[in-house]
Amino acid sequence: MTTDCKPLLPQTGRPAEILVVDDDQRLLTSLATLLKQAGYEITEALGGHAACQVLKERTFDLAMLDLRMPGIDGFDVMAYAASVRPDCGVIVVSGESAFTAVSRALRRGALDYIKKPFDPEELLETVRNVLGQQSLLRDHADVQSRLKKSEALHRYIVNSSPDIVFMLDQDGRICFINNKVNALLGYMPSELIGQHFSIMLDEQDVARGTYAIQDTSVSSENPRTLEVRMKTRGSRKANRHFEVTAFPIDPDTWHHNTGIDDRAASQKARFYGTARDVTERKEAEAFINFQAYHDLLTRLPNRALFKDRLNLAITHARRNDQKLAVMFLDLDRFKVVNDTLGHAMGDRLLQAVTRRLEGCLRKGDTLSRFGGDEFTLLLPAIHCEDDAKQIAQKLIDALNAPFKLGEHEVFVGISIGISVFPEAGDSMDQLIQNADIAMYHVKDKGKGDYRFFTENMSIDSANRLSLERDLRLALERDELRVYYQPQVCAQSGRIIGVEALVRWQHPERGLLYPGEFLPLAEETRLIDELSERVLAKACEQVGQWIRGGHTDLRLAVNLSPLQVEHPRFVERLIQQLEAFDFPAGNLEIEITENVIMNDLDQISQKLRELADYGIRIAIDDFGTGYSSLNYLHRLPIHTLKVDQSFVRDIRNSDDGACIVNAIVAMAHGLKLEIVAEGVETDAQLHYLRKLGCHQVQGFFYSPPRPSEAIYLALQQTELKVAAV
Question: Using an 8 Å Cβ cutoff, are 62 and 19 in contact?
């Protein structure tokens, strides 16, 4: 018989390959021909030995074999096929009809039994059925294998997940949790099973976590996601942040959808979720947020955060009719330390200063680093100015002790300006600006103190900016002028020295005096350049007079604190003298007591170097500062200048001149020269002569005058001889 189309296997789409085995060649050929005509791929094996050899070399979908064969019979072939080709099905085609033979063949794995002689149609139908059964068995085995692999893969994925995977029952108890909980939090999964999930939550997040699983709006399509802190086992590690996603589940579909091979857990589970460790992200966010609102060096709030808190404090004070205070703090002499010891030491100093300042604060106060060596302090609730005074004094006292920076011991002070709400301003910008203005008034008066803002300190910002611009232009356009005031021998009336004093020939405002622009020059740091210009002009002009025959003429020059505190002060001064070929012995520099006492050790060293070079040292405004005999012994001082406020007290009697008497006596005892400033009357001059004052300076002889007028006066033997 023939077939119109070949029977194909459903898995592969190819004809089935069948091994036909018999020891009778005639029967073997007949059966093979029948199967070939039916469309199968046939291989013939004559006898059991040949069958085993073919099975060893090739695979078959089906084997049809006789039981009675010499040597190796059908049962032996079945056993061999089971060992080397277990997927090959077997149909027995045999003349043996005994029940024991049939039973034995089926027990050995035969799928069917056909008795010889066979009916061709029945045989072909049996073959088709067995091959179909084989296909179903293979499909089922393949599905089972893939299902096992899928479940193994899911189990691997769940246990190897970077997240904690968990299941909860209706009451929130843990039914399942993967191994990741041990790596992240230190818990063994077995010890958590049956425990309420809150056992792992930080106490502050328990309520939020409990509410989340009770929310009826949560579903598989709308899961609940929240961030919570989870406790690590033990106290050595800090709690960690997790992003938890959870939703209710259908227990009937749980096992099939997740691959978690825990039937008991899946039957009880009502919630499924994952917990992702986001600690590093939260720490990064916190650091970025900290950077945005804090100074990284001192860890203090920065300008932005200070302004936010000040705005909030103003709103609160306005609502409750309260006062608040804003302090603007500026370190004195920080720049000197920074320039001398380097920025690394400067940073250490700022950190040390911060610690001391923080120790003076009340709870609720806000200290911020405003920039550089400037700080601001908010006192959000004060009853009166006395509260702010007490805090300001504590801050000043806290910085009095020296700071130890490695092998160096340094001193810094602090100048504080205070503005009180609402008297000194009712807005954030006003309070900060007015505190800043008050602080600069402290700087102008000698530093190391505090002052409250008052209306008479108010500065027109537009005029201030305009004046600063004009001062910068004045340096470029050479608008500064040097005037000189003679220093006269009290006995002979002869000019023995001149003090150089700066004036500004403003193109619109005319001649400006030092008090009108020097404070601004100090504030804007233009004082260094300005002072160098004045010294250069004075050295050039007076140097010409000295070389012209006035060889003993002394040039006295006032130096600003910023100049003296500069780490290269000595080097720069000597370089300037050499540049103009000015004799060092004809120069006398004047500094105040306050400059010396700000850093006695550093200033002493600088003054000794200058004195060794031949430069004279004078103490200006003596008696208005520290007036410490100790530093007079330690320093190479040549001259004391008596302040004009003491000279002004001299009248026709000795009663108002006791301070002058003491200063002159002290100078004589220390073998120092004396210059009395502000001499305006004959009576003052007569009194000073009697005391033995060496030199005088003041309007009695001459006000400060341009160089041309002084040069003419030098041509005379004396300016004016007063009656003895």
Answer: yes
Residue type, position 273, single letter: G
User: End-to-end distance of the chain based on CA atoms, in angstroms?
Assistant: 165
Question: Which regions of 260-373 does DSSP assign to beta strands (E)?
Answer: 271-277, 323-332, 366-371
Identify whether the C-beta of residue 45 lies closer than 8 Å to the C-beta of residue 20. Answer: yes
- Domain spans of the chain, in order of start: 17-140, 161-284, 300-459, 488-501+540-714
Helices (H), 614-706: 629-634, 644-647, 658-669, 682-691
Helix (H) or strand (E) holding 511, with range, is: strand 510-512
CATH superfamily of 161-284: PAS domain (3.30.450.20)
Amino acid at 388: A
Task: Give me the numbers of helices (H) and strands (E) for the chain, helices first please.
Answer: 28, 27
Give CA–CA dist 10/135, Å, rounded: 7
In the block, residue with structure tokens 């899911």: 154
Of 372-376, 431-435, 465-469, 683-687, which gets the smallest average pLDDT? 465-469
**Residue 624 — pLDDT band, cuts 50, 70, 90?**
low
Query: Where are the alpha helices (H) located in 38-119, listed in sequence order?
Result: 48-57, 74-84, 99-107
Report which residue type is found at 617.
Answer: I
Residue 246 amino acid letter: A
Instruction: For residue 503, list its beta bridge partners.
Output: 481
Mean pLDDT, range 605-622, rounded to an integer = 89
Task: For 326-349, write each residue's pLDDT tens digit.
Answer: 999 999 888 878 877 888 888 999
Residues 6 or more apart whose Cβ sits within 8 Å of residue 578: none
**DSSP secondary-structure letter at 621?**
E
More confident of the two residues 629 and 16: 16
Per-residue model confidence (pLDDT) at position 539: 94
Q: Candidates 3.30.70.270, 3.40.50.1240, 3.30.450.20, 3.30.360.10; correct CATH number of 300-459?
A: 3.30.70.270
Structure tokens at 686: 């007569």
Q: Which CATH class is domain 488-501+540-714?
A: alpha beta
- Residue 451 pairs in a beta bridge with 417
Q: How far is Cα 147 from Cα 82, in angstroms, rounded to an integer?
A: 25
Q: Are strands 408-410 and 413-421 parallel, antiparallel or unpaired?
A: unpaired
Average the pLDDT over each of 136-140, 273-277, 573-577, 630-634 and give the range with the smallest value: 630-634
Quick check: helix, strand or coil at residue 83? helix
* Contact assessment for residue 151 and residue 259, using Cβ atoms and an 8 Å cutoff: yes
What is the identity of the amino acid at 581? Answer: D
